[in-house]
Amino acid sequence: MRYRIRITIFALLTALSCSSASVVAETNPLSSSRVLAQKSAGFNADAVESLIKKGDSAASSGKLEEAKKNYDQARSASKQLLSFYRDLSGAFRGLDARIPREMDAKGRRVLGLLAKTNLRLAALFRRQNQPEIAVPVLVEVVRLMSPAKPEGQKAYQRLLELGFVETPYSSADRKSFN
Hints:
With 178 residues, the protein is mostly helical. The chain has a single domain (40-169), classed as Alpha Horseshoe (Serine Threonine Protein Phosphatase 5, Tetratricopeptide repeat), CATH 1.25.40. It has helices at residues 2-18, 29-33, 45-60, 64-92, 98-127, 131-145, 150-162. Helix 3 (45-60) packs parallel to helix 5 (98-127), helix 5 packs antiparallel against helix 6 (131-145) and helix 6 packs antiparallel against helix 7. It starts with a helix and ends in a 16-residue tail after the last helix.
């Protein structure tokens, strides 16, 4: 429990330190209390998407270390969000169905963002001629999304291209196990 509190505090401080917005007195107290709901500097799926976009921009301009840093931050935030959404969903299950539904929907969105981040990070490692570092990230995508989903198929295809696996997978060619 203390570990999660420390992670939460760290995530909050990181999100707040990344914010470039100046502090302005607000008349609406609700808007100031919803600091984590901000799109670019909050602790939510939109902030993860913002980090992915920053990473994409850095990668396209050749700043690979900066891109890696942004992707790593997006990956870390995604994992934390997934954990918190699961915990809240479980805590309210059987008490108020609206809250688990909301947390599950948010979790699915963040899971997709985690897969997207992992695919980009793996591509970055391949671009840096470090395919052995890309393998665990790609395997995680297959595990999280399953080979039935496009992200899982793409990750498996990358593993095939790297030579880590040899058997091609095609969802249309599903045959019985022989």
